[in-house]
TrEMBL record:
Domain CASP C-terminal, chain residue ranges per copy: 1-148
Protein name in UniProt: Histone H4 arginine methyltransferase RmtA
GO cellular component entries: Golgi membrane
UniProt keyword annotations, A-Z: Coiled coil, Membrane, Methyltransferase, Transferase, Transmembrane, Transmembrane helix
Coiled-coil residues: 1-42
Location of region: Disordered: 51-73
Taxonomy, superkingdom: Eukaryota
A single BP term in Gene Ontology: intra-Golgi vesicle-mediated transport
Species, as recorded: Ganoderma boninense
GO molecular function: methyltransferase activity
Length: 162
């Protein structure tokens, strides 16, 4: 009976080790798949750059042509890459670009200034303090003007009727 218990304990320990190995390998596979998707995205970027720069001849070609490589090399990552791309986010980006381009120069300037002010916590704080100081200056100026004009205005003497 003791031999079976000892053997059972050894097998359970080996099972735990194998489970840990499997868990580590699964994590590594997920990491490698994510890396492959990032590399595929870089390849797509380089291909689009090469297509854009096709008018300029260059001796440096970072990507081999499709004839040199098998077409199946990239096709298995294309589906995952396109699946990972959020179509709503892409649409939102296109719409934001379209809306920005439809603005006139003054509106673009206001938008850039607003983004610059609201984009950073320090600039927001500085803007709030600046606007508060301006408001206090205006209130103080109005108070001083009203106080000083009240004492300098002389009322005409009205003849009293008795």
């Amino acid at each position: 009976r003791d031999r079976f218990r000892q053997r059972n304990a050894e097998l359970e320990e080996e099972l735990r080790k194998q489970f840990n190995i499997i868990s580590e390998l699964r994590a590594e596979v997920k990491s490698l798949q994510a890396d492959n998707l990032k590399l595929y995205e870089k390849v797509r970027y380089m291909q689009s750059y090469r297509e854009d720069a096709s008018t300029r001849p260059s001796t440096l070609d970072p990507l081999p042509s499709n004839a040199a490589g098998r077409p199946d090399d990239m096709s298995k990552y294309r589906a995952r890459y396109e699946e990972a791309m959020n179509p709503f986010q892409a649409f939102r980006g296109r719409e934001a670009t379209r809306a920005y381009e439809s603005l006139n120069v003054l509106e673009r300037g206001v938008l850039v200034l607003t983004r610059a002010i609201l984009g950073n916590r320090r600039t927001r704080t500085a803007f709030i303090l600046y606007s508060l100081a301006l408001h206090l200056l205006v209130v103080f100026t109005l108070y001083e003007c009203s106080a000083s004009s009240g004492s300098s205005v002389q009322r005409p003497n009205r003849p009293s009727i008795h």
